[in-house]
Amino acid sequence: MPQTAILIPAAGTSSRMGGQDKLMKDAQGGPLLARVIHRARATGLPVFVTLPDLSHPRARLVRDGGATPVPVPDRASGMAASIRRGVAALPKGTPAVMILPGDMPDLQTDDLMALVQAAQNAPDAIIRATTSDGTPGHPVIFPADLFAQLQSVSGDQGGRLVVRAHKHRVQTHALPDTRALCDLDTPADWAAWQAVQDTAK
């Protein structure tokens, strides 16, 4: 039986990291992207990861992690290119796709499974993760009837426009603390996150 797929967009240029590749930076024991792939793969669901190309250094992490790489030759057109290419690569009959940003270090496998369960309980809904106080974040799960719209998004909006167009179908699911919002997009984000990890040791 086809399963919900997890799509990790990882074809970006880390433009806000001052020349560093944020997805290759060490995140408490290994590259950030490897951390996210490992937790996604631990769900037992198929995982697809978009990449600038198949020779990019990130591709090794994808292969080693047991995920499926998806090249995005038109990545310069914005985040939406990863969504379009990633959704197009999903197996026929895939019932839903979870879009999981590759720069979110605090999401746990149990969080992902909780969202999948919510989607199974409400197969026509868009399932959106929130923080514990209800602030919308990521991941987001889209049912298959919205795949065509995801394949027509453009620019850097990603799936946001699809969520807005179908806001009446959105069901939120709260995750612990700020896991649904914590992303490591800038050097300041990394420094703040590392400080928290060091304090927790």
Provide the descriptors you would attach to this structure in a database record.
alpha/beta; 201 residues; 7 helices; Spore Coat Polysaccharide Biosynthesis Protein SpsA, Chain A; 7-stranded mixed β-sheet
Written description of the protein model:
- This protein has seven helices and seven strands; from the N terminus they run βαβαβαβαββααβα.
- It is α/β, with parallel strands linked by helices and 201 residues long.
- It has one domain (5-200): Spore Coat Polysaccharide Biosynthesis Protein SpsA, Chain A (Alpha-Beta Complex).
- Strands 3-2-1-4-6-5-7 form a seven-stranded mixed β-sheet, with helices on both faces.
- A hairpin with a 5-residue loop joins β5 (126-130) and β6 (136-143).
- The chain is globular, with a radius of gyration of 16 Å.
- The termini are far apart.
Summarize the entry for a quick read.
With 201 residues, this protein is an alpha/beta fold. The mean pLDDT is 92.
